[in-house]
Each structure stands twice: as C-alpha cells, then as structure tokens.
Specification:
single chain, four-stranded antiparallel beta sheet, 176 residues, 20% strand, 38% helix, 5 helices, elongated, alpha+beta
Length: 176
C-alpha cells in the first residue's frame, strides 16, 4: 500500500535536503549558490548556526590546533601570579573559548590581547605588568606519531602590557 506524502512531510524533506547540500558544500569548500544580497546573510547565518559552514576541519589532515590562553601578572614589588581566566560560570567560559577561537584570525589578535590585558588589570588592580600568552597544541603527523612523536604546546602569541601610572604632571586640574 502506498501512502501519499503530506505537504508538511514534503516541506520537511526539502529542508533536510537543503541542509545536506549546505553541509556538503561547506565540507568541500564550494559555494553552493550565488544568492542575492538580501538572502546571503540568512544563508550564512543558518550555515553558522547549524555548523554547516564548519568545513569539518576536525577531520584529518586539516585538524585545527587546540589553543589555550594564560596570563602572567607581575605586581609592584615583583611578585608573580598566573591567571588562566577561568570563571565559575560555564557560560562565561564558553564565551572565553569562543574568543580564543577568533584569536587565531590575524586581524583580531592585538585588539583581543589588549582587551584581555585590560580585563586582567581590572581583576588584579595591584598588577603592574601582564604577559598574554596563547599556545597552540601542535599534533605530529601520523608518521611522526608512529615513531613516538607526541603533541606539544608551542607559543602562538606572546605580548607584554604595562599599566600606565599617572604622574602628577599628567593629571588634569579640575576647577569648580
């Protein structure tokens, strides 16, 4: 016995096929369609939201490296403190990880490092210097792994920021 498809079932099937096409195009790095300016943001937004545009880079050989950020702070008397910028809230930690993923884009590195340093100065008002350190986990090739090669953390970015301490000559006079 054959059952006719309802319009609702046909719509859902069509959307599933469209999603699979977007995912396949993302994995193959092929632009699927030349959309108009009005449609392009919607298609890009959908692809980002669902992961269809991820390119599936978590499969070999194009595995993107894991990254981590840490901060070394130095106080006025030379004492050192390490802060990994972790919070009790998992939602905030997810946002931090999201920023770290964006950090690997060259255009955002310096601005993001400056913002992180400012946040560290806010978290640690006694600090005079902050070193922002971003490390990437480098994975060995399969041949190197078979030969005993191990993953290792390497510096991907390092910058030192110093707190500006206002001097009496740089202070602005306020008159009533």
């Amino acid at each position: 016995m054959r059952y006719p498809l309802s319009p609702w079932h046909g719509l859902l099937t069509g959307l599933a096929v469209l999603h699979l096409l977007l995912s396949a195009a993302g994995a193959l790095h092929v632009p699927l369609l030349k959309a108009t300016d009005a449609v392009t943001p919607w298609v890009q937004g959908y692809a980002q939201w669902t992961g269809a545009s991820s390119g599936f880079s978590f499969f070999a050989p194009g595995v993107s490296p894991a990254t981590r950020v840490s901060f070394e702070l130095e106080g006025a008397s030379g004492e050192r403190l390490r802060d990994d910028f972790q919070y009790d809230s998992s939602a905030v930690n997810v946002r931090m990880h999201s920023m770290l993923l964006r950090f690997m884009l060259p255009d955002s590195r310096d601005a993001l490092a400056q913002a992180w340093a400012a946040a560290m100065f806010g978290r640690h008002p006694e600090a005079r210097k902050v070193t922002v350190r971003v490390e990437a986990l480098r994975l060995p090739s399969m041949e190197a792994h078979r030969g005993g090669g191990q993953p290792e953390w390497t510096d991907a970015y390092r910058a030192v920021f110093e707190r500006r301490i206002p001097t009496p000559s740089s202070a602005q006079a306020v008159t009533p």
